[in-house]
């Protein structure tokens, strides 16, 4: 995990020098709606002792102006807990409307609301589905990969985060969330 984080930080440092070729320089205010749509998403994974997950999060967005975009991100996550005699797996899913503002070159600010339907365990050991609401805000950068695609790295803070109660499974283990992914226009 430390090697992956080091790789992402080095990639971020190298990418900040790039000019945003896809976004504000590519679209004018009169662009047709088809040129304003973008798609993409992210893949995530974490493998730790006792806890692991794999996630897929496709997104679709619309460039309102050359610097402002809104969209929806969908999420699916498979989580597995394996600590001593405690073994538990879950399938979680959610939706997140988001807003991004490109304020300087490849850098942008991002905010979103997320509703996550996740599986938890009740005190008697039975699985129970719960809803989890989060409000995220943060920033990131976008590195173009050709004319209509790019890589993004995003660091968000969950302002709705609360520490889990004893014997409670929470969908997040920290208020800090790091995401990376690829977007593409069509």
What is the second-level CATH architecture?
Answer: Beta Barrel
Give me the oligomer status.
single chain
Q: How many angstroms separate the termini? A: 34 Å
Runs with pLDDT <50, length 5+?
1-25
The succession of helices and strands, N to C, reads HHEEEEEEEE
The secondary structure category is mainly beta
Note the main sheet: 8 strands, antiparallel, barrel
Keywords: Signal
Organism: Pseudochryseolinea flava
Signal peptide: 1-20
Protein name: Outer membrane protein beta-barrel domain-containing protein
List its salient traits.
186 residues; mainly beta; Porin; eight-stranded antiparallel barrel; disordered N terminus
Can you tell me about this structure?
The protein has 186 residues and is mainly beta. The protein is built from two helices and eight strands. It has helices at 2-15, 33-36, and strands spanning 37-48, 51-63, 68-83, 86-104, 107-121, 127-144, 149-158, 176-185. The protein has an eight-stranded antiparallel barrel with strand order 1-2-3-4-5-6-7-8. Residues 1-25 have low confidence and may be disordered. Keywords: Signal. Residues 1-20 form the signal peptide. This is Outer membrane protein beta-barrel domain-containing protein.
């Amino acid at each position: 995990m430390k090697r992956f984080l080091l790789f992402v930080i080095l990639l971020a440092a190298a990418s900040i020098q790039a000019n945003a070729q896809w976004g504000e320089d590519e679209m004018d205010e009169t662009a047709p709606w088809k040129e304003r749509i973008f798609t993409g998403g992210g893949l995530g994974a974490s493998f730790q002792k006792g806890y692991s997950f794999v996630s897929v999060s496709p997104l679709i967005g619309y460039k309102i102006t050359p610097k402002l975009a809104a969209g929806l991100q969908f999420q699916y996550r498979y989580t597995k807990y394996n600590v001593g005699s405690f073994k538990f797996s879950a399938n979680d899913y959610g939706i997140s409307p988001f807003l991004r503002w490109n304020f300087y070159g490849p850098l942008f600010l991002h905010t979103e609301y997320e509703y996550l339907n996740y599986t938890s365990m009740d005190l008697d050991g039975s699985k129970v589905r719960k809803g989890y609401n989060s409000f995220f805000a943060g920033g990131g950068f976008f590195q173009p990969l050709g004319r209509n695609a790019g890589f993004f790295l995003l660091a968000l803070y969950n302002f709705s985060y609360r520490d889990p109660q004893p014997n409670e499974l929470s969908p997040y283990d920290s208020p800090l969330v790091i995401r990376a992914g690829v977007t593409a226009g069509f």
